[in-house]
Amino acid sequence: MSSIPLTLNLIEGSVSFSFSPQAARELKTATDQLMDRLKAVAAKLTPGGGRVTPQPPLEYRYTGEVFLEIFCNPNIWPTPFAAKVLLTVRNINIRLTTEAELTRIIEDINQYLEQVG
After folding, report:
1. CA distances (Å), 55 to each of 12, 14, 68, 69, in order?
2. pLDDT tens across 80-112, in order?
3. Which terminus of the chain is less hemmed in, N or C, by CB atoms within 10 Å?
4. In a 3-state reduction of DSSP, which class is residue 6?
5. DSSP character for 12?
6. Phi, psi torsion values for 116, nearest 5 degrees
7. Can you tell me the distance from the alpha carbon of 114 to that of 96, in angstroms, rounded to the nearest whole number?
């Protein structure tokens, strides 16, 4: 495990926890795919874009020192930049469930990956 914690900035406040670089790369891949789905939905919502094909949600789960779950339904957001995710971080002692801005989570993951190399 990396000694550098992952810090996710929330709408109000932040949460930091131990997270592996490999898990961060997997989460980055999952959020990149989600952004592609959000862009596909946004493109179909423009006039003349045709019928919207429902896109699958992001349902990311990680179990380490903490359990992390991130959920986002791309079909309910008008643009990728408006999208929010439902974030749950828990361990045996505490559980935090809140909304977070997708673009901020992506920035936090990228910053973490730059730090751990």
Report:
1. 29, 29, 22, 19
2. 999 999 999 999 999 999 999 999 999 999 999
3. C
4. strand
5. S
6. -90, -10
7. 26
